[in-house]
Amino acid sequence: MTQPLKAKLVSMLEVVYPELDCDFLAEQLLTTMGLAPNQEPPPAHQNNWDESDVVLITYADTVQRADEKPLQTLHRFLGDCLSDSISSVHILPFFPYSSDDGFSVMDYLAVNESHGNWEDIESIARDYKLMADLVINHMSARSRWFENFRKRVDPGKDYFFEGNPRDDLSAVVRPRTSPLLNPVQTDDGERYVWCTFSEDQVDLNFANPKVLIEFAAIIRRYLERGIIIFRLDAVAFLWKEPGTPCIHLQQTHELIKILRLLIEHHSPDAVVITETNVPNRENLTYFGNANEAHVIYNFSLPPLLINTLVTGDCKHLKTWLMSMPPAQMGTTYLNFIASHDGVGMRPTDGLLTEEEKQRLINTMDSFGGKVSFRRTPDGRDQPYEINIALYDALQGTAESGRDHWQLQRFICAHTVMLALEGIPAFYIHSLLATENDLERVEHTGRLRSINRSQWQLDDLEQKLADPLSHHSKAFQELKRLIAIRRKQPAFHPNATQFTLHLGLQLFGFWRQSMRRDQSIFCIHNISNEVQQVALSDINLIGTDHWQDLISGMTIDDLSGSITLKPYQSVWLSNLEVTV
Q1: Residues 6+ apart with CB under 8 A from 268
Q2: DSSP assignment, residue 39?
Q3: How far apart are CA 396 and CA 393, in angstroms?
Q4: CA torsion angle for 408, 412, 413, 419 (degrees, to 10)?
Q5: Residue ranges for the binding site for substrate?
Q6: At what angle do helices 457-465 and 70-77 cross, to 10 degrees?
Q7: Among 475, 370, 467, 391, CA closest to 434
Q8: How are the residues of the chain apportioned to helix, strand and coil, as percentages rounded to the nearest 5?
Q9: How far is C-alpha 302 from the chain's CA centre?
Q10: Marked catalytic residue, from 203, 233, 392, 437
Q11: Residue 555: enclosing H or E segment and its boundaries?
Q12: Residue 279 and residue 295: Cα distance in Å, rounded?
């Protein structure tokens, strides 16, 4: 018999709050979410996605038009240009905020008036699966909750995590170089608040169960507004205990299980995604036993794929891919190669040597990139991420610098991403092949602004209508590849994947549909030289008819070979699914 919802919830809460009346707390959470104690559970190991799922990541105001709210302009752009290409849209924090382009939230239940309103959000949610950020680790120092913390009144008095400068905090893992503890004057004296990311982003105190109840209420409101995919921002840092690294603690994993349990009992088709920009082995723990995140970001993919394409050597990418466990049914990966943040370097720990990391950093620097740092427990500053637009990151090679293969290299990167096990996600500036925005960096003083440009819709439409612009060439080819991908059963996010061994200049893997009726051999020339592929090395089944889905080329002689131009890809399929 399935254990009733309340009993499951109580057992999880007892791990986090062993000193509290968890039966009463469970009742509060269920009431807040509008759930019955014996609510029917969703089907076990249910995949809320298929091969047609493609995510677009964008800020609410990336595309703008005079005299129109940006959320309305975004909806217009999606409908005109991408309705046949994407199934989901991730709108980065669209709430009132004080810094960090939205991630210092002042009010979780309001839409930034300069972007639009809840009606605009709901309108987009009716046409696409909508992903929103649950900025759960911290809140703005200018929020009402924090003002109440200063005044020592509720709600907010005990909502933020406090530290003591005398505590041993040497083991705390930091993603930034800013001070961890910041002094704050309150109505009953000076207190030190914990700030993992910045002085304006004060960490919330989940040791206070009232904070958990507040977030249950927030989640329910989001679900009622049409949000169906929840990105748990910076969730790895959620629980703090001085004397520990304060990352990946057991209570953090248990809180994710609790949130997932509440969300999926409310809406069985909802999806929880954890954002944990950490080394690969640590990242994988957020699947739990298929009871934490439905989806985790493949954080190692961006730096490894960029490194592969600028070195012309796929050894590390291939080694990583072979080490990745197949996701259980009901879980999968989110594949991306660019985002609103930089290219994370921590996910390369254990995958690239220090010398290889430095070579990648030097190459990106020569292509106009910047580097953000983090503070290690021993007080040293280490590269945390490379800030660069993906189109410019791929403008040349580490050995020879800039060359004329930029567009082909850029398309190759996305062709790899589209075929891998998992759900593909396109950052809007990659889909548009936007270059480094150094002027914006100078204007804001923030390195991440290099890849956070804003387009005027008229200018963008003009670029996309010009067949000679690299924006149009990239956009049209990526849309064509997306259309092909969305029709292939072998590209289901949970379809079988095996790595091929074709040398260092050819990166290949095999996908097979869950019904085993379609095989696709995905082979990519990741070098700037022509490569030959002997078909005997791929082991194509002789009784099947094989065709490259990308070029339309058919293969009649399985004893022969195919020639791949620099950065060319083929998707060799035994089942033709027309677009």
Answers
A1: 42, 43, 46
A2: P
A3: 8
A4: 160
A5: 100, 138, 231-233, 340-341, 448
A6: 20
A7: 391
A8: 35, 20, 45
A9: 11
A10: 233
A11: strand 554-555
A12: 16
Query: Is the peptide bond prior to 155 cis by the omega test (within 30 degrees of 0)?
Result: yes
For residue 403, give both structure tokens: 């060359």
Which CA distances in Å does 240 have to 63, 174, 252? 38, 12, 9
Binding-site residues sit at 100, 138, 231-233, 340-341, 448
Could you tell me the two tokens for 172?
A: 């705390």
The CATH class given to the 496-573 domain equals mainly beta
Strand order through the sheet with 496-499: 496-499, 506-512, 519-525, 569-573, 546-548, 554-555
Q: Are strands 569-573 and 546-548 parallel, antiparallel or unpaired?
A: antiparallel
Which residues, including other chains, have CB under 8 Å from residue 124's CB and lie 6 or more apart?
A: 71, 74, 75, 78, 89, 91, 130, 226
Residue 167 annotated in active site: no
The whole-number mean pLDDT for each consecutive block of 10 residues of the chain, a chain of 579 residues, reads 82 98 98 95 96 98 97 98 98 97 97 98 98 98 98 98 95 94 97 98 98 98 98 98 96 98 98 95 96 97 98 98 96 97 94 97 98 89 96 98 98 98 98 97 95 97 98 98 98 98 97 96 98 90 88 90 97 80
